[in-house]
Amino acid sequence: SKSDAAGHEAYLHNNDPTYTPPAGPGLWQPTYPDFAPALLPRWGSVRTFAADASDIVPNPLPMSTSPGAPIYQQAVETQRLVNQIKAGEKYEDRWIADFWSDDCPILTFTPAGRWIAVANQAIENNRANLALAVETYARVGMAIADAGIRSWGEKYRFNVERPIDYIRRVMNDPNWNTVMCPDGSGQFFTPPFPAYPSGHATFGAAAAEVLTALYGNTPFTDRCHEGRTEFLGNPRQFDHFYEMAEESAYSRIPIGVHFRMDSEAGLGLGYRVGRKINDLPWRK
User: Fold this and answer.
1) What is the pLDDT of residues 186-196, one digit of tens each?
2) Phi and psi (nearest 5°) for 266?
3) Residue 236 is inside which H or E element, if any?
4) Residue 124 half-sphere exposure, CB side, CA atoms within 13 Å?
5) Residue pLDDT, tens place only, 157-174
């Protein structure tokens, strides 16, 4: 670990006040409500297990303030879904948003840790022997590690702003907010790092690839939040792990913290990372 300068003990200083993000229209800056310094802005240079610098995402949609522009239309989608949830509509989307909101401090998992919890359930459901259990944790752990490194590398390569800043700045909605991680006082949250690509989507796709390789394309019921009362935590049923990854990626749109392009790019990146982990020599 000590030979990996960017990664060694980086958990001791997750938010980096020495990082100055580039300024300009459409570029990420510390975000409302807490304007925290950038989270792990140099994480993209951490050593990987199988992924490398060729694992990238396409260029994001061009920044534009025109109502006819694709980025504007994606902001409209995020704004509309959040507003419908706030109005008491879109029960299913609210459930999805809450169910996958894996980065509310103290309350829920980390986004990467969520897939360890899913792996726990897969091992138990399939009564995996010790060898399969060990391989499951190794593959999932390596996949989400590489997914985080490559996703964060791409995030800070493009520095795309979050929907909250675009909607407030461009769409004349200065008080608009997400529905992520309510603090009880009417305040909500936006993660302190650039939007594109989505980390949720990248983690989920990478984990889905390796879990499918190990356990097949079979139905799965996620009980991660069963019994919780702080939010809609009822178990959700899926036809396969890929459907879980797709829903996790989508969930970041109705919760208000991503554009659709973020989720789509993260899925593509995560699937590539997961396949590279699967291609490692796991069998003699």
Assistant:
1) 789 999 999 99
2) -65, -40
3) strand 236-238
4) 10
5) 999 999 999 999 999 999
